[in-house]
Every structure is written in structure tokens, then in C-alpha cells.
Amino acid sequence: MEEKKPTLAQRAISFWNSLNRALRIAIAAVLGLLLVLIIYLLATAGRVEYEVLQMGLTSKEAANATAILGDLGIPYTVEGISSVTIRVPRGTRSQVMLQLQSEGYPASDADLYKFYTENASGMGVTDQDKRVYDRFATEQRLAYLIRQMEKVQDAGVMVTLPQTSQFALSENNQNAQASVVLSLEPGVTLTDTEAEAVRSLVVTAVAGLQPENVTITDTNLHVYEQPNAEGVGGVYVADQIALKQQHQQLIQDQVYNFLNPVFGTGNVVVSASVDLDFDKKSIQTVTYSPPGDADNMGIIVSLQQAAERAGVTEMAEGVAGFDANGAAPFYPETVEGDTAPVYSYSQQLNAEVNEVRQQIEEAQGKVTGLSVSIMIDADEGLDEELENVRSLVANGLGVDAKYISILRTSFKVNEDYQKMLDEQAAADAALADADGAVKRQAFAVAAGVVTLALLVALIILAVSSRRRRLGYEAELARIEEAREAEVRQALEEATLRERIGEPDDSASLSRLKDIQKMASEKPDVVAQLLRNWLTDEYR
Predict the structure, then answer these.
(1) What is the reported pLDDT for 343?
(2) Which CATH architecture has domain 50-102?
(3) Cβ neighbours of residue 57 under 8 Å, at least 6 residues apart?
(4) How far apart are CA 143 and CA 478, in angstroms?
(5) Looking at domain 250-280+364-412, which of 3.40.190.10, 3.90.1170.20, 3.30.300.30, 3.10.350.10 is its CATH number?
(6) Are the C-beta atoms of 115 and 129 separated by less than 8 Å?
(7) What is the pLDDT of residue 214?
(8) Are 223 and 217 in contact (CB under 8 A)?
(9) In whole angstroms, what separates CA 173 from the centre of its chain?
């Protein structure tokens, strides 16, 4: 009967049973790891990973971009409300950007130049058409440059150029004018310096345009006037407002940073109001004081004396107030006469005292009023400590406590603001998850390759070990068979000699010793050989 061949399962079971315990555990661990890796790859294979295409877009820009993506059949996701982020499948960003640019989005300076060169040249284009194309290109190029500035999300420029008169003495002369509309980032405004930068850009780009003919507004209906007139005390009104806001913000930050570590982040709201005096004041004072000498007379700067005499009939000779002999001064008087003399003497003395002149100019922007309002989100146990908090804040600002007001209340969460924060956090988390997923997939692929390599190496090692073991067992069997044959031959020869009575030679003795040695070392093998020999003998 033909022997049945073992099946593949039987061979696998036989191969598994032939392995030792350590090799079985290693193969089982590798197979388990490979199974987990395959399950993970199958679970994540159908999920599409996205990457950022554009960030910080307005709703209009996002609508234009998504419309083009929809027409092109490109999948995308949109995140955010005021600041929109568009994502496309990972690895397609560069290709999608090229397709968007081919559709004219976003408009670039090169596109504007291409538009001008394609339309302002060629046959049939009049001078009027060229002026229109030139004005349009100038407007679009200015808008593109302004959009690159900080705080500006979008910009529109309209330029009105005067008509060039064909007559030298024409009185219908008009000036160029320009209007700029800015869409700023949420919660920001332009300073006077930034508005002047935009104005200067437009003025220098349009020939014959004067700064006073440029109007700048934003989408919040705020007009940025040219600061051609100074405000009170020589400070622009806009600068006054900006300085006041900076001072208020400085005080608010100081108080908030002081209270925030105590009550926790988000539990303190601070509002400060500051009154600044921008009046330009100059004070002049003159102070007189005595010199401090003995008679407090001061320094004599001039002296005038006058002496008169009337009613004199006869005068003595000589110089008045002089004695030739060196005696005391005297005045000549009448020796004799009928009329009595009349004397008149006057003296005028001018002296100066100490004089101090001071001219004081007060600095502009002096703080004339300050009030701080604080709201704290806390329980009723804080009511007893409000006065201490008020005193600490007042001492920190260097003002009286009456200018500080504190209210303990419970804050209500701004749902819209919290929603915006949650959306931003979700967008950041999604981006982080996408990056993490890519890294995990790369790690999983690398781990799969390593695991597969280990599995192949273990299988090769197991097969090689089994082959070596089978070869070793076959070699042992061959040696045992050879020894059994030798023993069988020796026993047969010994038995034959005993039967015929021939003496044993040295070779026979040697084989007999080998048999005895083998019988002492492996009695089971010799016994089995004898049983087999006896069985064959008596058949």
C-alpha cells in the first residue's frame, strides 16, 4: 500500500514541534508584533492627512480660494472665522498653489505687470486706453504693496489723474487725487507715523500728487487725516490719544501683573483712566532780596548831590567847599548884607539789591487725573480683604486709595471668544496630530520592516538549526549503524569460531574487546542487537 504524503498543516505542525521553546517564544512575539502593525496600518490607511495651504485669510479671500479649489476638484478643509486657515491633502500643497496661481489667485505684482503689458500695447490702443490701463496698473500695484505692510490685511487704491490740457494758457488745471481704503487686522489701528508711510508711498508713486490730496480710511470708517496742524501745546491730537492709551495700558499691565499671581490667570480685570495735561506752560519769576550786609543798603550804582543858596548880597571869595589850608570843607557865606541867606541841599542815591530770575517750562503730558477699576472673580470670603488689596494697589501706583475701586463678582465666559479659542486650539491640535500621524506612520513602517526582517532571520535560523540537527542525527544514526554492523560481524565470527573450535586471532580479540567495551558503555544497544540477532537466527 502506498504511503500517504503529509499535508502542509502536518508539516507545519511537525516543524513547530521540532523547534525548541526559546525559538517558539521569539517567533510568536514577532508574529504578534507584525499582526498589531498590520492592524494599525489598515486602520490608518483610509484616513487622509492634510497640511496648511494658507493661513490668516479673510473671509472673502477664503471664499475666492475655496471656490477655485471646488472648481478644480481638490479636497480641502476650512478652519476659523475671522482668520481662516485652508488645508489640502498632504504632499499636494505645491501643486495646488501652482494651480491657484494659474487661475489668478492670489494676484501678484507679476500678474499686474503682465496685465498691463498685454492690454496697453498693440494695434488699436488709443492714448486714452493707455492712460486707463496705466492708472489701473498703478492702483493695483499700490494696493499690492500696501497689503504687504504690517497690520494690513487688504487694501484698495483709487487714483484720479488730471486731464492733460492741449492749451498752454488753459485755466482748467486739476490736481491728482488718491483714496486708500485699508482692511486692518482685528483690534488694531494705524498710528500717525504708519498712516504717513502709506501716504508717502502713494504720493511718490503718482506724479503731481500732493500729500493733502490723499485720503486714507479703514473699513471701520476711521479717517487718517494728515497731521498738518498741531494740537494743543504743539502735540498732535492723535499723538495725545496714543500717549494716553499707552499710559493707561502701562498702568493696567502693572496692576494686572501685581494681582495675577495672587488670584490666578483670568480672574482679574483691570481698567485704568488717565488724564494728561498737554498744555504748554512757561512761568517766569523775579525774586529780590537784601544783600545781607550791615546796613542792607546794597550796591551803590549812582549818587547825585545838589546845594543851593539864595539871598546873598556879598559873597566871600574862594571856592565853595575848599580850604587852601586843608581844613574841613566849608561854604562861603555872606559877610554882611540886608537879606538873610537861604540854603537848599539834595542827594539822590541809587543802590541795587540781589535779584533772582527764574523761567520754568512745565513738561507736556503731565498726569492730572488717575482712576483704576478692578474686578476680581472670587468668592465672598474676599470681601474682608478688599480694603487691603486697594491699599496695596494704591501704594504700588503712588496714589491715594480713593482713586482705586475694586469689585468682587463672578465672571461670565464669553462664548464667542471661548469658541474662537477652542477653534484655534482645535486647529493647532489637528496640525499637531497630522504631524504626529505622519511620524507614527513612518515609525510603523520602519518597525514593520524591522519586524519582518527579524521574522525572516528567525525563520532562516530555525530552518538552518533544524537542518544541522537533522544532519547531526543522521550522522549519529550512520555511526550507530556502522557500529552495529561491526558488532554483528564480530559476534557472528566469534560464534562461528566457537562452533568449529578455531582459536581467536589478535584481530578477533581486538573486536571482542571493542564489543565488551561497547556492552559496558551502551548495554541497551548491545542487548537490542543481540535480540535482533537471535530473532533472525531462530526464524
Answers:
(1) 73
(2) 2-Layer Sandwich (3.30)
(3) 65, 83, 84, 85, 86
(4) 97
(5) 3.30.300.30
(6) no
(7) 93
(8) yes
(9) 52
Could you tell me the end-to-end alpha-carbon distance of the chain, in angstroms, rounded to an integer?
Answer: 25
185 burial type by CB count under 10 A (0-12 exposed, 13-18 middle, 19+ buried): middle
We find that the CATH architecture of domain 132-164+174-228 is 2-Layer Sandwich (3.30)
Q: What is the dihedral of CA 241, 242, 245, 249, to 10 degrees?
A: -170
Residue for grid cell 469658541: 419
Q: Is the pLDDT of residue 498 over 90?
A: no
73: amino acid identity, one letter: G
What cell was used for 153?
Answer: 490685511
Interstrand relation of 209-218 and 176-184 (parallel, antiparallel or unpaired)? parallel
What the block records as the C-alpha cell of 72 is 478644480
Neighbouring-strand partners of residue 309: 343
On whether the CB atoms of residues 310 and 341 are closer than 8 A, the answer is yes
* Sole residue written with cell 499700490: 142
pLDDT band at 228 (very low <50, low <70, confident <90, very high): low
pLDDT, tens digit, for every residue of 42-63?
666 666 778 878 776 777 778 8
Q: CA-CA distance, 18 to 405, in Å (whole number)?
A: 88
Q: If DSSP codes are grouped into helix, strand and coil, which group holds residue 512?
A: helix
pLDDT at 73 over 80: yes
In angstroms, the CA 193 to CA 187 distance is 18
Stronger pLDDT, 434 or 329, i.e. the higher one: 434
Task: Name the nearest CA neighbour of 491 among 434, 423, 439, 537.
Answer: 537
Q: In angstroms, rounded to a whole number, what is the distance separating the alpha carbons of residues 53 and 51?
A: 6
Q: Tell which phi-psi region holds residue 146, choosing left (phi > 0), alpha (psi between -120 and 50) or beta.
A: alpha
Question: Quick check: 364 and 279 in contact, CB under 8 A?
Answer: yes
Per residue in 260-298, pLDDT (tens digit) is 888 888 788 899 988 888 777 788 888 877 776 666 666
